[in-house]
Amino acid sequence: MKPALGLIEMLGFVGVAEAADAATKAAAIELSAVEKIEGGIISIRFLGDVGAVQAAVEAGVQAAQEVGTLMAHHVIPNPHEDLVRVFGLKKKTDEVDLESLSVHRLRQLARETPGVTIRGREISHANRAQLLSELRRAKSDQTDI
């Protein structure tokens, strides 16, 4: 499944930092890239399911406007395969060293990962060891197919 793509462009770094922080705290998304364009414009990209990306972009835009100059923002719900290929828009879940992630991020991944058997409050109350075990099991089940 292709993730949705969220974009925010700001003039200056402070607004971008505020937008990225608010967006990643607002929803279970992946901060995919921060790219300097020209003239002081910086673009940030988010990946995740459509609802999460929309919520993240909205939160990022609102926070960024308080401290910087918003240039543009947009959500592409189902990017074309060429866009996915050219921009490298694949979620990095498989490439991530799970041990290095915070419990908060592990919980986000558990909610996003197909095959995870714990749900809702079980994820919210799970400790690091439980989350790691469940994510590894789900990943193993996917590779066995």
Any descriptors?
single chain; 145 residues; alpha+beta; 6 helices; globular
Layout of helices and strands:
Elements: E1 4-11, H1 13-26, E2 30-36, E3 41-48, H2 50-65, E4 69-76, H3 81-87, H4 103-112, H5 120-125, H6 128-143
Antiparallel strand pairs: 1-3, 1-4, 2-3
Tally of strands: 4
- Rg, rounded, reads 16 Å
Following the backbone from N to C, one meets helices and strands in this order, namely: EHEEHEHHHH
Q: Major β-sheet, in short? A: 4 strands, antiparallel
> What is the number of helices?
6
* CATH homologous superfamily identity of the largest domain: BMC (bacterial microcompartment) domain
In terms of DSSP E residues, the strand content is 15-25%
| CATH domain fold name of the largest domain | Alpha-Beta Plaits
Proper CATH architecture of the largest domain: 2-Layer Sandwich
The structure class reads: alpha+beta
Uncertain runs are: none
Helix-residue proportion: 40-55%
CATH class of the largest domain: Alpha Beta
Query: What's the number of structural domains?
Result: 2
- Separation of termini? 16 Å
The mean pLDDT is 86
Read across the widest sheet, the strand sequence of neighbours is: 2-3-1-4
The shape, in one word, is globular
For this structure, the quaternary state is single chain
